[in-house]
Amino acid sequence: MKKILALFLIVAVSAASFIFVTLYRNKRQACMLLQKEKDNPDSLSNLLIHAKEFEKNGNLSEARKVYQALINGFSNSSDIIAWQKKIDELNIKLLFSPVITPRSVLYEIKPGDTLNKIANEFHTTVELIKMGNNLTTDKIIPGKKIKVWNAPFSILVDKSQNTLMLKTGEEVIKTYTVSTGKNNSTPAGTFKVVNKIEHPTWFKAGAVVPPDSPENILGSRWLGFNL
């Protein structure tokens, strides 16, 4: 029995060491690529190859760093918009995945916990916890560890460009194209989103335009403010 236990411990330690070494190697490799980009401006094609490899292997954080290095190092490139869109895409994938980021924590579920209780404690939502941990139900098990986002979100709307930036702190998670009021009628100021509608119906004078109609100008989402 002691021999079996000892063998189990050796295997467990070896597995943990392998995971640590793999993560360390990935992080070190990403840092080396960034330094190489600074030293060699001709490494654009190589960086693109490595970014795609990182993403293919599920190393989303490292892939994001490389795309950011491309933007910083090749600011005159015609592909800069595509790289920024790729960063936006990776940010959303990281947000909705179990990968721990600087703005999330690994939380161990305690007896008596519910998703609603955990969401209230960390000022997040049940929906985001479920999406970030691939949960299909509200059932959780004490002792299991889950990812919980613990940083507040905000949105910044630029009426001159008709863009909306989803932010956490000063970091931009994703930029969206939006519509604002005609003749600059959308008010300026700081507001709170009080209702969100997916595939909204457009109620205009004398007509009701359904969500699937090409004449519906509201788009796929509607945000209502506390005006």
Which ranges are low-confidence, i.e. pLDDT below 50, for 5 or more consecutive residues? 1-24
Q: Tell me the overall shape.
A: globular
Q: How many angstroms separate the termini?
A: 70 Å
> How helical, in percent, are the residues?
40-55%
Largest sheet geometry: 3 strands, antiparallel
Structural class by SSE content: alpha+beta
Strand order of the largest sheet: 3-4-5
Q: Would you list the SSEs in sequence order as H and E?
A: HHHHEHHEEEEEEEE
Can you characterise this structure?
The strands form 4 sheets. The protein has a 3-stranded antiparallel sheet with strand order 3-4-5. It has a two-stranded antiparallel sheet with strand order 1-2. It contains 6 helices and 9 strands. The protein is of the alpha+beta class and 227 residues long. A hairpin with a 4-residue loop joins strand 3 and strand 4 (163-168). It is 42% helix and 20% strand. The N and C termini lie far apart (70 Å).
Summarize, please.
This protein is an alpha+beta fold and 227 residues long. It is built from six helices and nine strands; from the N terminus they run ααααβααββββββββ.
Descriptive key words:
disordered N terminus, two-stranded antiparallel sheet, single chain, alpha+beta, 227 residues
What is the fold's blueprint, element by element?
Blueprint: H1 2-39, H2 44-56, H3 60-73, H4 80-95, E1 104-108, H5 115-121, H6 126-132, E2 145-149, E3 154-158, E4 163-168, E5 171-177, E6 193-198, E7 202-204, E8 207-209, E9 221-225
Helix pairs in contact: 1-3, 2-3, 3-4
